[in-house]
Amino acid sequence: MLSVENLSVARGGMPVLSGVSFTLAAGEALVLRGPNGIGKTTLLRTLAGLQPPLSGRIEMAEGAGAYASHADGIKAQLTVAENLAFWAEVHGGKLTDAVFEAFELTELRDRLAGTLSAGQKRRTGLARLGVVGRPVLFLDEPTVSLDRFSVRMFATFLRDTHLAGGGCAVIATHIDLGLEAPELDLTPYAAAWDAGGGADEAFL
Ligand SMILES: Nc1ncnc2c1ncn2[C@@H]1O[C@H](COP(=O)(O)OP(=O)(O)OP(=O)(O)O)[C@@H](O)[C@H]1O
Question: What class of enzyme is it (predicted)?
Answer without folding.
Answer: hydrolase
